[in-house]
Amino acid sequence: MIINYDTTSIPYPETIASLSEEKIENVKEFPYLGYTIKYDEATTGDKEIDLRIDLAESKFYELGGKLMNKKILLCTRMKLLDALVRSRLTYACQSWTVNQTQIQRLTSCYCSMIRKMIKGGYRREKDSWRFCLSNDNLLKIAKSEGLEVFVRRQQRNYAAHVIRKENESTSKRLMFNANPIRKTGPRMTLLKTAIESANESQRDFIRKATNRVY
Q1: φ, ψ for residue 188 (rounded to 5)?
Q2: What is the pLDDT of residues 73-91, one digit of tens each?
Q3: How far apart are alpha carbons 112 and 48 in whole angstroms?
Q4: Which of 39, 72, 99, 125 lies at 20 to 30 Å from 196 by C-alpha?
């Protein structure tokens, strides 16, 4: 596989290596440690988001008999949901570089599960398609935090962890890579996302990370 390949000028090659004169297929997608890598998606792409949602929904319905059992306390079911379902939905989220549309998709998936767990979660207002309970109401009833809040906190803590590493660390060198040879347009990085979510300057963020505030 060739990572971040630009197919606008040259088609993606079917093979780039051979073994004993046998050509090896150059795949466009590759699963690695539960994470799906796609050749033309430099950041966390829609393919990975689709996989996270599919795996989470599959696990939710597998545990549906317990998660949607109203006889079990909601707080108990929420702990089960976060431990076994949300963990799949947000697997490796600490290193994601996702846009707002992707976050909204994940949030919608998470809230739809909570809606199924709460009595009257799908009740709609009279003569309207609007739900009586908004997503914010659902989170308050379930005493849970929004998925975006959880993801951004994980990213912030991981970025702080990388900052505290030795300067020779590969992950730290990649995070602070200032290679001028790159594609034009806005650049979304984990460090930039973490700083923006913390609403601080880069200097203050690094100082707090070094002092283990995060």
Answers
A1: -105, 120
A2: 999 999 999 999 999 999 9
A3: 20
A4: 39
| Amino acid identity at 4 | N
Cβ pair 77, 106 in contact under 8 A: no
- How far apart CA 54 and CA 44 sit, in angstroms, is 16
d(CA 33, CA 122): 36
In the block, tokens 């090896």 appear at 24
Helix%, strand%, coil% for the chain, nearest 5: 50, 10, 40
Give CA–CA dist 117/33, Å, rounded: 31
| Digit-coded pLDDT (tens) for 76-131 | 999 999 999 999 999 989 988 888 899 999 999 999 999 999 998 888 888 888 88
Name 15's bridge partners. Answer: 25
pTM equals: 0.78
Domain segments of the chain: what residues? 1-40, 43-144, 155-210
